[in-house]
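We emphasize that the prediction below concerns an isolated chain of 105 residues; any contacts that depend on oligomerization or on bound cofactors are therefore not represented. The input was used exactly as deposited, without trimming of termini.
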Amino acid sequence: MDSANSIYFLTAVKKWYIGPSIGSSSRGIERISNRTGNDYWYEWDGSKWIAANQVQLKCIDQIECSCKNLDISGFDFHGLRHGLYVAQNTVLHGRKCFSVKHKLV
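Result of the prediction step, given as a token string:
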């Protein structure tokens, strides 16, 4: 399995990251959830963080209260991170981690 991109949660900063390795602070994409329940996605354009308003994250194959797979798309600067992510056996800070299975081109 290609693990070049992973989705994971870092408790210390209370953000979901899409980055090269689970647990790393290195990332190109992050999601912030605020107290009102709104989620905001941001992507690094090479010099600054910009809002990524077109992001779509879909749960695929939901089993009980858990997603088995995630499909993500809608980034302007990180299209190579679009694709299907599969739940891993890795749990970081009490949350599942996902690694890319199939990249959309």
